[in-house]
Amino acid sequence: MTLQQLKYIITLDQERHFARAAELCAITQPGLTIQLKNLEEEIGVKIFDRSRVPLTPTPIGEEIIEKAKKVLRETESIQNLVINKKNDLQGTLNIGIIPTLSPYLVPLFIRQLEQTLPKMKFVIRESSTGELMNSLETGRIDVAIMSTPTGNANLREFPLFHEPFIAYLHPNHPALKEKTYQLREQDKLELLLLQEEYCFNAQLLDICSKGKKKNHERFMYDINSIETLKNLVRASLGFAVVPWLSVMSEWQNGFCKVFKEPVPVREISLVVSDSFTRKLLLEKLSDVIWKSLPEALKENRKYKRIRWNDSPYFMKVVEEFKEGKSR
C-alpha cells in the first residue's frame, strides 16, 4: 500500500468516474484500474462497486477512503511541520475562494502578498463552498477564504472580518429616499438569487424569509455572477442583497442602501484542514488581507451574523453538491 494509491482512491471517490479521476491523477485509465486492483488484492476487500453507475464505494470502501484522507492529512502535516520549524516561507500555496468574494477581495491583497512572501508561488482557485471544503479535506488546496462557520469538524476556521450585506435597489424603489433599508414583503417576492449551489443563497434567504416558506423558484436565474444580479436590478427586474465589497465603489450611483441595525453580515475566514501546521504562513496571509481591507470594514458596528450552516437551506446545498459529485 502506497500514499499514491491512497490518493488514487480518494480521487476516484471524489469523481466517481475512472476517466476523470485518471486525468486528475495524471495517469492513464488502465494504469489507474491496475493500481486500484493491486490495492484491493493486497488488503483483500473491494473498495469500489464497479457494477454500479456512477462508480460507488462499498460500505467498507467508504471507511477505507475516510482513513486514507486522514493518512494523507497527517503526511502533509509532517511536511508542513518541518517547513514551519525552519520558518521557510517558500513553495506553493494553493488558495481557494468563494465566487461571491473572489473578484472583489483578491485584487485588494494579491500584490502585497507577493511582496510580503517573495519566495512563495500562489495558485488561486475559485470554487463553491462545498467544493472548497472537499478540496481542503483531500489536500487539493491548502487554505480557503470563505464564509463560515462551515460546520465541518475536519476543518479549522480563523475569522478575518465581517462583511455587511447591502440592499441593492432599482431606480424606482421607494426605500431609496430612506436613510437605511428595512425589508418589505414585496422585496421578498422579487429577491434575485444565484445558482442554488451557493451558500450565499442560504444567507440571503435567512435574511429575507425569516424562516417562512416562500416560493422563490419563479425568480431563480441560472447565473453565478453578482454583477449580473446588479444589472438585473438596475433594469428594474428585481431586488438583490449583495456583499459590501461588491459595491464599495458604487455608493454614488444611488442603488445601495445599508440595512437598518442590526446589520446582517457574513463572517469571512481563513479555513484549513485540521492537519495544517504552517502557522507562520497563515499569520502572514491573515495580516496581509486584514491590512488590505477598506477602513469601513474594520469599524465596530451592531452586526447580526448570518450563519449559513444554520440555515434551513444548508442541507439542500450540501445534498445538491453530493448529487453533483456522483454524476
TrEMBL record:
CC per GO annotation: protein-DNA complex
InterPro entries tied to this protein: LysR_HTH_N (IPR000847), LysR_subst-bd (IPR005119), WH-like_DNA-bd_sf (IPR036388), WH_DNA-bd_sf (IPR036390)
Annotated CDD domains: PBP2_OxyR (cd08411)
Record has Transcription regulation as a keyword: yes
Family per record: Belongs to the LysR transcriptional regulatory family.
Keyword Cytoplasm: no
One Pfam family from the record: HTH_1
Official protein name in the record: LysR family transcriptional regulator
Keywords: Activator, DNA-binding, Transcription, Transcription regulation
Signal peptide residues on this chain, from the entry's feature table: none
GO molecular function, one term: DNA-binding transcription factor activity
Residues in HTH lysR-type domain copies: 1-58
